[in-house]
Design goal:
This protein is α/β, with parallel strands linked by helices. It has a single domain, classed as 3-Layer(aba) Sandwich (Alpha/beta knot), CATH 3.40.1280. The protein has 5 helices and 5 strands; from the N terminus they run βαβαβαβαβα. Strand 3, helix 3 and strand 4 form a beta-alpha-beta unit.
Length: 161
């Protein structure tokens, strides 16, 4: 069974967002081993310099390394410059990743300042949810739902209409 992880910076603060993620995690358990890995967010000043931001991204990147370098991992960076896919295209992408022999799929969500460029370079794919900007906490819920939808599409479930 494929393992799917959302590697993200920060914790969900709102209970309704945690509940939504938990619901999709429960649903996904029928299709894969799903988990959300919450990494510590770097603390920055109210008006951080570019140097402070780069140091924070570098620190967060170090926390991501054990997951990104795991054997059999296919890493996907969630970033604005990434490719946009429809739900059926994401479903086919996940199927192909599994068929190609990868046992772990990591979706990486950075902090509000993004993802370290070195992490992006370690990822085989850059994926964008939209040209619009979403709060990272909401993006995590949306990504969880789209992963569930992708597996439901592959299973010919009635969920995707």
């Amino acid at each position: 069974m494929t393992s799917v992880n959302i590697i993200c910076v920060g914790k969900l603060k709102e209970s309704y967002l945690r509940d939504a993620c938990s619901e999709y995690a429960k649903r996904l358990s029928a299709y894969c081993k799903f988990s959300v890995v919450e990494l510590s967010e770097s603390r920055l000043s109210d008006n951080p310099s570019q140097k402070e931001i780069e140091a924070a991204l570098s620190s967060e990147a170090k926390l991501m390394q054990p997951y990104l370098s795991a054997k059999g991992a296919y890493n996907i960076a969630m970033c604005i410059e990434g490719k946009q896919l429809s739900s059926p295209e994401l479903s086919r992408t996940i199927e192909k990743i599994s068929v190609d022999g990868f046992s772990v799929i990591n979706f990486v969500i950075g902090s509000s300042f993004g993802i370290d460029e070195g992490v992006k370079n370690q990822c085989r794919m850059r994926l964008s949810m939209s040209k619009m900007t979403f709060p990272h906490q909401l993006a995590r819920v949306m990504l969880s739902e789209q992963i569930y939808r992708a597996f439901a599409i592959s299973a010919n479930s009635k969920y995707h209409k």
